[in-house]
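Issue 218. Parser rejects a valid record. Input:
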Amino acid sequence: MHELTLEELTALLNVFERAGTSRDGVESDLLTRLKAAHAERSELESLDFDDCLGGACKL
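Output the parser choked on:
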């Protein structure tokens, strides 16, 4: 499956924000998963891999 880029995840979150809140379980679950994926992708893209030399961080 194709993983979404940080830009694509941001765009999807913006669409949800403009659409407003929904009490639909599927939509609510999807929004929660999108927020988590966005946070993970954002953190991954902010890593400086030079910091990981010598085992300083775990990926």
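Fixed in the parser; the record now loads. The first helix runs from residue 6 to 19.
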